[in-house]
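Researcher: I'd like a candidate sequence for this fold, 143 residues long. If you have to choose between options at a position, lean toward the conservative one.
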């Protein structure tokens, strides 16, 4: 009698050495935490003299967001709480609940002055100027 592997969430599945379905079964062995992750997508664009970082955030308000730049690391945090008026409703399906998530990106030459952020239509846009190294160059006249 052969052993039959157990895959969490999918039950007991038969194993056949030449079964093409085993490949797909193995691909589906994804931890449940990864499936329920509330991470949000971000885009980082190099604009030459600055970086533009866009975070796509649905169902949150400006008050749910926290943006920090610490030694070149830009962190965007969301702490969305369930709204009081949503409690007690009879949902057939509900996927948005209270959650927290943080995304970060390292911007090696980010300046700490001149930062700006806007939030409109579910998109947070953060503009991070680049640090310009000042060089002490002095022209010398030739006699």
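Model: Candidate sequence:
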């Amino acid at each position: 009698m052969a052993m039959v592997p157990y895959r969490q969430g999918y039950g007991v599945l038969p194993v056949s050495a030449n079964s093409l379905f085993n490949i797909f079964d193995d691909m589906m062995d994804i931890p449940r935490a990864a499936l329920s992750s509330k991470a949000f997508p971000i885009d980082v664009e190099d604009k030459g003299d600055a970086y533009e970082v866009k975070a796509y955030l649905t169902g949150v308000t400006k008050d749910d967001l926290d943006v920090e730049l610490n030694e070149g690391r830009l962190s965007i945090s969301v702490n969305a709480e369930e709204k009081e008026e949503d409690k007690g409703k009879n949902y057939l399906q509900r996927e948005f609940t209270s959650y927290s998530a943080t995304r970060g990106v390292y911007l090696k030459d980010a300046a700490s002055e001149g930062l700006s952020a806007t939030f409109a239509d579910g998109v947070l846009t953060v503009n991070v100027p680049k640090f310009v190294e000042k060089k002490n160059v002095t022209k010398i006249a030739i006699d």
